[in-house]
Amino acid sequence: EDYEDLSSMYQRNRSEGFGSEVKRRIMLGTYALSSGYYDAYYLKAQKVRTLIKEDFDKVFSKYDILVTPTSPTPAFKLKEKVSDPLTMYLSDIYTVPINLAGIPAISLNCGYSKSNLPIGLQIIGKHFSEETILRAAFNFEQNNDVEKKKPSIKPAKHKGAAE
């Protein structure tokens, strides 16, 4: 598509391409970095990020990978709308430390809940160990029958999608 300028391209891309949860998080981040809040939040957050990275470095001095749940709950139902911001935030709480530490991870299906919803398994590796975590994920998939079982897909009764 043609855009008048770079600013209009970004505005359209971000207004149409991001869901409400992503927009909410961008707004919170922008607010935290606005004048008067930089020192209070950003610098402290960088210190916390460093501590998280150091904790992972200690773990990876003993282990090649970590295996954890991807989320505290199974996946949302297809087209399920979750309007509570805290619920949305907590749905990816197990991936936040990995992102803050800047280390590689992969999520794959490891089974299904009683409601037939996928359950995520996260394989985490140290910096620059993408090959290791991809091999571990491949090994898991080759030695489990998870992908042979296909769930029946029934959309939630709510309109809209989890964003």
TrEMBL record:
Q: Tell me the GO molecular function terms.
A: catalytic activity
Residue ranges annotated for the Amidase domain, each copy included = 3-134
Q: Can you name this protein?
A: Amidase domain-containing protein
Organism classification, top ranks?
A: unclassified sequences, metagenomes, ecological metagenomes
